[in-house]
Amino acid sequence: MNNYVKLLNNLENLELKNMKSNIDQYIEMVNSNERSVVDALYELSELEIKAKTERAMNACVKVASFPFYKTLDDFDFDFQPTVNKQQLLDLSTLRFIENNENILFLGTPGVGKTHLATSIGIECARNRYSTYFISFHELIAQLKKALLENRLGTRLKHFAKYKILIIDAYFLHQLYHKYHINPLKYPLL
């Protein structure tokens, strides 16, 4: 077995898949004096780091349990002119996290609150903040079940461990329209 094959095997064993898939291109660049050996190795290592970072970000997004993958770029601000685009772009900088601020999206059904909350949440997850998305209905169901099973404290700790907890209260507008209950008057909601 020659050293080239051994190198490919080593890259595979070290799980350096991007380096392995690009090694031939960089060997050719070194051989044609387009890159020095050091530059080629540096660029290959950068490719690997970028790929691992991307995989880690995608894993954080997956763990967060978003109902769909949408970003602010997917939001039609022209269709919803009442939504302050600049304010949303500011939220996407995640400055609110460092300032220990909470976000509350209010509005009538169909405005895009879930889309906006999801897009900000995805940005949080991609920046490696522990993030979790749950509907208000599911949150209450899980807490009721935990209470009945005498493990409410454990369940609350589970939700408290996240830096970003997104609670989608889609059905809260029904409380107002159906039962004439204003959920904003009840802080536990």
Task: Walk me through the structure.
This protein is mainly α and 189 residues long. Helix 7 runs antiparallel to helix 8 (152-160). Helix content is 57%, strand content 5%. The chain has nine helices and two strands, in the order ααααααβααβα. Strands 1-2 form a two-stranded parallel ribbon. The chain has helices at 3-13, 17-31, 37-63, 85-91, 95-98, 113-126, 136-148, 152-160, 172-179; strands at 131-135, 164-168. The model has no long low-confidence stretch (mean pLDDT 88). It folds into two domains: 3-57, no CATH class; 72-185, Rossmann fold.
Describe the structure concisely.
The protein is mainly alpha-helical and 189 residues long. The protein has helices spanning 3-13, 17-31, 37-63, 85-91, 95-98, 113-126, 136-148, 152-160, 172-179, and strands at 131-135, 164-168.
How many E-type strands?
A: 2
Question: What overall form do the CA principal axes indicate?
Answer: elongated
Largest sheet data? 2 strands, parallel
Q: Kindly, what is the distance between the CA atoms of the first and last residues, rounded to a whole number of angstroms?
A: 67 Å
Instruction: Just name the CATH architecture of the largest domain.
Output: 3-Layer(aba) Sandwich
Q: CATH fold name of the largest domain, please?
A: Rossmann fold
> What's the tally of helices?
9
Cα-based radius of gyration, to the nearest Å: 24 Å
Given helix and strand content, the structural type is mainly alpha
Provide the spatial order of strands within the biggest beta sheet. Answer: 1-2
CATH superfamily of the largest domain: P-loop containing nucleotide triphosphate hydrolases
Helicity level: 55-70%
Topology as a string of helices (H) and strands (E): HHHHHHEHHEH
